[in-house]
């Protein structure tokens, strides 16, 4: 027998190297076979429910790291809630309608306009479902549990039917109307856009000053006066029908050379400098209210331009006179209504001029800028042309500029229930506090919602038209369509004629001949996902409405959070969520957005292939994802190092409790020593902090708390000295069993706390905890903090000891630098304590060997005065000398008893180790050890 064979060196098959990429897929298969998701819900039957409603990702393309952060975060919450006394189902979903899928089909060479509408829609549906399958596989590979076999998909007939019912109820409440006011239009998408679909990018635009010659000044100005406007959209000049002046501003008539211009008085100096008027004279001052009703001539078309009053005109820029094109500007449209000004919008769906703009027919609107400025110059109306860079709205999908364009559209009138939405916003728990302000301001300032789209792939607006053009939206027709969609899907809208879609025997005064037509526009896709509270929460027995939580990216304040509360309040008067948690965007290591052009994207499958899903999950938990976060393979590699520390610390606990039977070997709390009790108090603090952090969705705090506990309390303190006791003492000694008691409790409870974040690793550990009854760690309950008497006093006491220990380590390090010692076990430490430290050490020494806690061979507390070269730690001084005696070949301590044993076979051991060998290994004591 060798000496090391007398030690209780921990043994375990739990590997140091995780091998997660190979293990995780097999574990996920086992979870599926065991139906772990459903089993946990069954176990939680009767408990309070917690419903996190999944915001549907768009079904197009493989998942990216932003998707991963989103789904992992949700899984962490769901796993925690299911282990914390709740029944928390998770129904994943997908958004499947909309332009991106049409664009994919176009790239594949499929020409929509050459196909039967229904056939084309089936192709869209089939493609969308392949993407659902692709993404589902990706999400499951991350260890996300849920009802993957029965997700919600917005193209499902039952979902479409529920969406139609939401529309019908909003119409019944008087919120749906048709109008022709200007809305965001994307020529690149050939469709209207909602505000939520707009993003801003810098562009270089033309800036022009244009003079409109007066034709009727009501006798208040000379007939040769000219009104000067400023615009950054020259292409809209062909649509000009008016000029706005503020009724309260003063305007001046300025003589420049042989011309007379009208501009705002306060802007005279600015405009004069801009237009390089070297010599000018103010001829007259006139109120804006007096300009109202004057008429000017269009610069190059033979029509009038009406001068009107509008209070939205500002003096921040321009001339104080605003070019009015009601067909291309929201304010232009709104403020010109009382003047009954026409609405001219000579731009088609693709952004080209129509014959309503003579001379520009077939020209793309952006190219019209050059032509228009040429015409203005030819007509002596162009006073200045320059270019400037500014922020301009773009289609968030195609990334190309949008325009304002007046077309007949269907709207939801936000004005009619805006205050109700704002009241509900106030009631929601905003986990990220600024989220409330952001959504509140968006709702407060938004215009009416354009809900119609001129595309093919989507849910049709369930609207019919009578022979006289009257729109028909009645509770009877809407419910009938909902039932048809539930049975056949919305594709039936395109497979049947209008009369065959209406209820049998339906009549309408506007159709004396019984003829009807149907709407060809589809709904905004935000109406799809925004109706999910009805299509999912109200349809699934295991879910509840309103949901307890919505969690998505911060862009959803303008998207899903917005559309969901809008439709829910419109129909039921309440928000569809009790709480909202938003997350930032994932960026590369340099803080740049991921993009194909930069080639800086990271695919989750690349991370799981190299490191494993648990590493990606641990990264998600380690960052503050309430704001934008950065990620790279190097950063993931750093997370992998932290994971290795966690894994190997837990492996140490597994190895050193492998012979521990909690039913027979556990030492009661009263039998534990102070250091053991302190660790359990700290464990309780960790449990309390982690549970509170999980409840606040603060995963970073969970990670930090557990990691710091394992690093500072366990590895750097408790395990550092405890390993010598569990290795050296007899296998069944009380000292060894008390430490194993603490180790095992910490191992089991930390494993449970880690399940939501690193489920694969937690379940792997659980297979080594054969004494635990549950088949999976996920089927256990979250640990609760125990009530430990005098916990606060114990924390104070041991914090003082750890402070003293830090001072000893400082002295040991200095002695090591001076070559007095090598390892700490070579040290004999002399302490010259102040009264507080003296009492502290005496108290510890009543039950524990202080030298063992400090990992030194000898500790002496002296009453003498400290030498001058002693290390000062507060009012305590410390000296370090090399311990006297020989090195015990078993425990590695230096002890004067080494070499004194009468048994020659035990002469290399200290008396303590010799007694253990004599008792436990009599053959070795009698026959000696094998040579090294």
Which structural category fits the helices and strands? alpha+beta
The count of β-strands is: 35
- Give the distance, in angstroms, between the N- and C-terminal Cα atoms: 10 Å
Question: How much helix, percentage-wise, in residues?
Answer: 25-40%
Globally, the shape reads elongated
Number of helices: 30
Unreliable stretches covering 5 or more consecutive residues: none
| Biggest β-sheet description | 10 strands, mixed
Radius of gyration: 39 Å
Report mean pLDDT, rounded to a whole number. 94
Beta content comes to 15-25%
Describe the structure.
- This protein has 932 residues and is α+β, with helices and mostly antiparallel strands.
- Strands 7, 8, 9, 10, 11, 12, 13, 14, 15 and 16 form a 10-stranded mixed β-sheet that branches. It has a 4-stranded parallel β-sheet with strand order 1-26-27-19. Strands 31-30-33-32 form a 4-stranded mixed β-sheet, covered by helices on one side.
- α18 links the parallel β26 and β27.
- The protein is elongated.
- The termini are close together.
Write the layout of secondary structure elements.
Blueprint: H1 20-34, H2 36-43, E1 52-53, H3 65-83, E2 93-94, H4 99-107, H5 117-140, E3 152-153, H6 157-172, E4 176-179, E5 182-186, E6 191-193, E7 198-216, E8 225-231, E9 242-245, E10 250-256, E11 259-264, H7 268-274, E12 280-287, H8 288-291, E13 295-297, E14 304-309, E15 321-324, H9 330-335, H10 365-378, E16 382-395, E17 403-406, E18 409-412, H11 418-427, E19 429-430, H12 434-445, E20 449-450, E21 452-453, E22 464-465, E23 471-472, H13 475-488, H14 492-495, H15 498-501, E24 517-518, E25 522-523, H16 525-530, H17 532-537, E26 549-553, H18 560-572, E27 579-583, E28 586-587, H19 604-610, H20 613-622, E29 629-630, H21 633-655, H22 674-695, H23 699-728, H24 734-754, H25 759-766, H26 791-817, E30 827-832, H27 835-845, H28 850-854, E31 858-861, E32 871-873, E33 876-882, E34 886-887, E35 894-895, H29 911-920, H30 922-927
Parallel strand pairs: 1-26, 2-3, 8-11, 9-14, 19-27, 26-27, 28-29, 30-31
Antiparallel strand pairs: 4-18, 5-6, 5-17, 7-8, 7-13, 7-16, 9-15, 10-11, 10-12, 13-14, 18-20, 21-25, 22-23, 22-24, 30-33, 32-33, 34-35
Helix pairs in contact: 3-20, 6-13, 6-18, 11-12, 11-18, 19-20, 20-21, 20-23, 21-23, 22-23, 22-24, 22-26, 23-24, 24-25
